[in-house]
Amino acid sequence: MLQNRSYVKRTRGGKITKVVREHYLRHDIYCGAPVCKVCDTSQARLSATASTVLILDTNVVLNQIDLIENPAIDDVVVLSIVLEEVKNRNLSVYNRLRALCSNSLRKFFVFSNEHHKDTYVTDMSGESKNDRNDRAIRVAAQWYQTHLAGSVRILLLTNDKENKRKALEEGISAETVESYVRSLSRPDLLDLLVHPASSEDVIMEEVEDLRPSKKKIVYSEHKPLSEITSGIRCGIYHQGKLRVNRYNPFEAYVGSQSLSDEIIIYGRANMNRAFDGDIVAVQLLPQEQWHEEKSLAIADEENEEEEGVHLVPGSADDVPRTTAQPQDSAGETCSASSRPSGRIVGIIKRNWHSYCGSLEPMAKPAGSGGVAHALFVSKDCRIPKIRIQTRQLENLLDKRIIVAVDSWDCLSRYPSGHYVRTIGQIGDKDTETEVVLIENDINTRPFSTQVLACLPPLPWSVSSADLANSVREDLRQLRVFSVDPPGCKDIDDALHCTALPNGNYEVGVHIADVTNFVLPGTPLDDEASQRGTSVYLVDRRIDMLPKPLTEDICSLRADVERLAFSVIWEMTSEAEIISTRYTKSVIKSSAALSYVEAQARMDDSRLTDPVTTDLRNMNTLAKIMRSRRIERGALTLASAEVRFQIDTETHDPLDIGMYQIREANQMVEEFMLAANVSVAEKILKHYPLCSLLRRHPTPTREMLEPLLRTAAAVGLNLDISSSKALADSLDHAVGDDPYFNKLIRILATRCMTQAVYFCSGELSPPEYLHYGLAAPLYTHFTSPIRRYADVIVHRLLAASLGIHRLPTVFQDGPQLNSIAENLNYRHRNAQMASRASVELHTLIFFRTRPTDAEARIVRIRSNGFFVFVPQFGIEGPVYLTPRGEKGSGEWFVDEQQQKIRKMDGSISYSVLQTVRIHLEIVEPQPNRPKLELKLL
């Protein structure tokens, strides 16, 4: 049946046009109920024993998704009109709902009401789109009631009073969500309900707070979006993302493009109910109210000290197995003093999500029927306390739980939220690790049956068809080997180096041919695209792809034939590239070496076997390539990558120390970088508008200011006019202390920008620059087992060689940009999760091992300084005045010389000075253990 739908729209030229679209209606769309006597029940998704089938309206899905995900809510019909409206309004909730609908263990059925001839509703004159959608939902609910003819109860859940009233008048069973949940006799489910904020809630909060403020907390009303938009256009307001200081939650920064600078926001009042990550509108304060950044922490009205210990970020995200070359990484943005200060006047886009933490109990109100009010304290100190209601207070006090934010009224001291679920016992390592994964939005769900169905059966081996493939070269005769961290199972790169008769070398980088198994548009490809990257924690790995691929089928293990994508150069003995070719191949690795094993072979002059000779030749070439790259302006920075020795039985840390870099690490890294550059040049030549590349923006002078100030304080003059100038300056930054140069390089690393993926058609060629590598072009090709970016680049390279057609997604610019944004998001989260895992294991290690150690001062503040502990790779604050105080006047800070001294001149400390400190685990606030650093 054909139904025409028409609507009017305004063109870009301002004309009004009428659009008519054909809408096909069917009568054979089944209802999904196995008790149905009319429809095809072979694909029924609802329970055969269900007494009630739920139909949800759009707002119930949007606001109550945490409840809907609970297994107690099942046998749900999701109407296609609801699914589409949720998709348009909240993509995150839509993805969660889709996951429920595709989960074979849950009884959720999607009914295409918009294409069924009996449930499709035509537009009515004067009816809003929202009213039409509500009417369509009621029509579908009524059809289900008639269609199933009393076999099962159909219940419409809606919190919309008008929609419920009309449903009841039309003979449809309808209830509010709360009413239905109460009927289940599951008081714990009531904790999951989202309650709209009201003035009564705010009054109750002030009564129930165990530690009420001395004065009523009142925030400014947020400006309406129309006024914000106008103000931004006029330059009155400035838009940017709020970043809260992880050392001090009462200090935040908003990066403003309109000012080309960061605006500092001091105090909860000026933050005005904004959360870390919110897109906000900021109004500058008068210049006399601007502050200089001097304190480690600023005291607040609640006297809550929230400082944390920071582990210096890892580096070398282009080759994450080493730390010698951290050009493609970024730590926290360094902040300079005397920046503009402002206050937030409106929220443009909220970044609310679920948070992990524990409860701080509050007084139980009389006659509440077991309902207790409690304050939730997030593990992330940047998040304010959240007020929730719970009926299971006693059971939750010693647990890590998840809480979601619902609202934050301008009269309320705290945001309001609701309990989502319990993670586990506080302090348990598995619980705390799950917290790390949840906080960083890491997908740990098992791979679905649809994804696993995309894998070839095991055992897998190279077939005669693979060898007969005309586009795949047989390179099994080459002496290929891999060099990886100890115990590495997901080996995605291997090397070969063969001396040629003309005195040159044939050098190859062979990368696992993952795209042979991960085909575009399959469930496996969709899953890898969403996950974006594998995540490496101290004690585990969360794979982007299923283990049969990562550890077997694609892993380039020794003595087995594997499919590869190879980049092969002919090089002179001076590492000059004569020619480059790219080919799909079959290889057979002759050795899978660890960095330690490879280094030992190269260092042992008694060994002259072919593999060792190849290693030495490659190392010689790599040194030349590295030297030439540095001469070109590539930065050789440094970072403190921490490594743990883990107990094989308990998985607890036995020892902690800095990761050791060897020539073998640098050798592998050099050829991976060269392969990435060669592939970037190849794909961009063929696909100038849709290549996925990686750029590292040049840091601004403001970002480098803390480094310059520190260098000047110790008599160094760093030239930052270019990466080459900075590299040369860092080479000359030497002192009597052998660790001095590395410390300067670590400080420089922390002031770098973050490298990001982008689509070539979105930027001009000068913006493609990778600053740290001093490379005009760069991409990621060498790790497709663990990075989806490399999978995309493999497809581009294959298409450029005429091996495969380019997938249609490369013709969709917005979708490509969306993929790049997701990759950047997932990559950043993976980095943060890795660092948080290091922090967790550091806490576990020092819990029973209070330790004294040598440290270097890296930043001076008015009430103390930050130190870096080389032995453990740890950075944190050391207080000279009590925590939370801005300074008692006892100490004087010389900003220019980066010194702090007592007013009587008896003691002074300067930047980069060596001090002795004591490291010990303390718990200044319940359930928030910290590594405290004290001056000895």
Give the structure's gist in a few sentences:
It contains 25 helices and 38 strands. The chain is an alpha+beta fold.
Give an overview in words.
With 936 residues, the chain is α+β, with helices and mostly antiparallel strands. The protein folds into five domains: 20-183, 3-Layer(aba) Sandwich (Rossmann fold), CATH 3.40.50; 199-217 and 354-439, OB fold (Dihydrolipoamide Acetyltransferase, E2P); 236-349, OB fold (Dihydrolipoamide Acetyltransferase, E2P), CATH 2.40.50.690; 449-643 and 651-690 and 775-836, no CATH class; 850-935, Beta Barrel (OB fold (Dihydrolipoamide Acetyltransferase, E2P)). Helices cover 29% and strands 25% of the residues. It has 25 helices and 38 strands. Strands 12-33-32-31-37-38 form a six-stranded antiparallel sheet. α3 packs antiparallel against α4, α13 packs antiparallel against α25 and α19 crosses α20 (663-686). The longest helix is centred in the last third of the chain and has 35 residues, at 813-847. The radius of gyration is 30 Å and the shape is globular. Mean pLDDT is 84; it is low at 198-215 and 294-337. Belongs to the RNR ribonuclease family. Its EC number is 3.1.13.1.
